[in-house]
Specification:
259 residues; alpha+beta; 23% helix
Length: 259
């Protein structure tokens, strides 16, 4: 009897020791595996195209490690704003074969928005019955994303662009009125007042309904030795800064410009 008990304990201890060794081996193997980015395959894409009925297409392109917007205007992209979109539309959101889904009821026959990440098409449709999830179709599969995914897409240029008016540190800034230099600013404290300007939104320019006359211009020189001429438009409700030759303007509150 005593011998059987000893054998049983030896067996249990041996089994426990083997499980412990297997666990250690698994952890060590796991640590050696390449870390996969949470964005999956979408993080390897180098282009994004957003298409919505009644709106200009939004095109993004990855240059080296940075994203830029190339249409409807050329501005830098905020990756903090772009990454949630790439993550939302990652392939793991898909659950059903397209043949199993009523595409018309799901709003996928006439999608509310279409997003191309690289060569892959994502079609955004209606919400489910609870209104918390939205149908998404891609590569013959249909799944769900959070309802607010469409709001992110519908945010347009402002939802994805870097809203900082100046992306490189300024070395100097010259105020020009009627082609005459009024003031040149080189003091760091004064330059920082301009450097910190951030847009409330970025819009296509000129505006369709009204476009005021430029009040003055500024000529900037930054640490990359890039010079830019920017026209300033002022109304009672907003101030717009437009880089000359571009199709968009940065909209800030009317009292935001440094004195």
């Amino acid at each position: 009897m005593h011998s059987n008990t000893v054998k049983r304990w030896v067996f249990l201890l041996s089994a426990t020791f083997c499980l412990l060794l297997l666990s250690i081996a698994y952890v060590m193997w796991k640590e050696r595996q390449p870390k996969l980015d949470v964005l999956g395959a979408n993080n390897l894409a180098s282009s994004v195209l957003i298409k919505r009925t009644g709106f200009d297409d939004i095109a993004l392109r990855k240059v080296d490690e940075d994203w830029i917007m190339t249409s409807p205007c050329s501005v830098e992209v905020s990756e903090q704003r772009l990454n949630p979109l790439l993550e939302l539309l990652s392939p793991n959101t898909n659950q059903y074969d397209v043949q199993e889904v009523d595409l018309a009821a799901a709003g996928l026959e006439s999608p509310l928005a279409v997003v191309f990440i690289g060569d892959t098409e994502y079609r955004l449709g209606n919400t489910d019955l609870q209104g918390e999830r939205r149908y998404v179709q891609h590569n013959g599969r249909v799944g769900f994303v959070p309802e607010w995914a469409l709001s992110l897409v519908n945010g347009g240029v402002s939802a994805l662009a870097d809203l900082n008016v100046f992306n490189s540190p300024l070395k100097s800034l010259t105020i020009v009125v009627d082609d005459q230099t009024v003031k040149t600013i080189a003091e760091v404290s004064e330059l920082m007042l301009w450097q910190n300007l951030s847009a409330q939104q970025i819009v296509g320019w000129p505006l369709e309904d009204e476009t005021p006359e430029a009040v003055f211009s500024i000529l900037t020189d930054d640490e990359t030795s890039t010079q830019n001429l920017i026209s300033i438009f002022e109304t009672e409700s907003y101030t717009a800064l437009q880089y000359n030759g571009t199709a968009c303007a940065y909209i800030i509150s009317p009292d935001s410009l440094p004195n």
